[in-house]
Amino acid sequence: MTIGVLALQGGFIEHQLMLKTLGVDTFEIRQYKDLDKPMDGLILPGGESTVIYKLLIDFNMVDKLKQLIVSNLPVFGTCAGLLLLAKVVHGYQTAYLQTMAITAKKNAYGRQTGSFKTKGIFNQKDAVDFVFIRAPYIEDVGKNVDVLATVDGKIVAARQGFQLVTAFHPELTHDLTIHKYFVAMCMERKNNPSLK
Ligand code: GLN
After folding, report:
1. 171 an active-site residue?
2. Nearest residue to 136 (alpha-carbon basis) of 32, 41, 30, 48
3. Is the per-residue pLDDT at 112 higher than 80?
4. Residue of 83, 113, 172 to mutate, ligand 1, most atoms within 8 A of C-beta
5. Comparing 46-50, 69-73, 112-116, 156-160, which segment has the lowest mean pLDDT?
6. What is the pLDDT at residue 28?
């Protein structure tokens, strides 16, 4: 199992460490040709969505990345990664990759003081630590989207097909629950190669 981690900006190393702990091979995606490497899944890390998207444009990676995601390459977006996948970003005329039917609110908890840690339930069963750093939340989801976690009534984790997003940062905790969930998604996809 090999998972590529977008490494243009932000917290990609922490994701790689989590995957390594789970025995998964990873590589860093830094330029267009890295997107051609064989991978069973892809992580879009936290960071600054505007900066990451600008670099994706500069390196001509947007179309190829979108094409991989719409062909059901499993993708896990954390925080800025969630914003990158959202079809709509509240208050912005156009969003970024727009592959997932969610409306996200950027810096929804405020810019600086809005960083906090709490415990929540993921996927109706696992109690995990949620670390929020200038996080977005999800204001609205399309009908094919499953809500996987909420905090104070706000949606903070969701899945649509092979796209998984969290507003928080599991890679900044010692809890492997959510990375395990994503690796299982990648395995499910790998075992169903006929899925278009
Ligand atoms: N506020 C950041 C953004 O707009 C996201 C913060 C994060 O990824 N920790 O992209």
Report:
1. yes
2. 48
3. no
4. 83
5. 112-116
6. 98
Architecture of domain 2-191: 3-Layer(aba) Sandwich (3.40)
**Residue 1 CA to its chain's centroid (Å):** 18
Neighbours of 141 (CB within 10 A): 18
Find the residues whose C-beta lies inside 6 A of ligand 1.
Answer: 46-49, 79-80, 83, 106-107, 133-134
Query: What's the 170 CA to ligand 1 centre distance in angstroms?
Result: 14
Instruction: Return the HEC string of 20-67.
Output: HHCCCEEEEECCHHHHHCCCCEEEECCCCHHHHHHHHHHCCCHHHHHH
> Mind listing the pLDDT tens digit for each residue in 24-65?
999 999 999 999 999 999 999 999 999 999 999 999 999 999
**Residue 135 in contact with residue 141, Cβ under 8 Å?**
no
State pLDDT tens for residues 66-99.
Answer: 999 999 999 999 999 999 999 999 999 999 999 9
Q: What is the pLDDT of residue 158?
A: 98
Six token digits for residue 192: 């169903």
**CB within 8 A of 152, min separation 6: which ones?**
none
Q: Is 169 a catalytic residue?
A: yes
Q: How many CB atoms lie within 10 A of CB 181?
A: 20
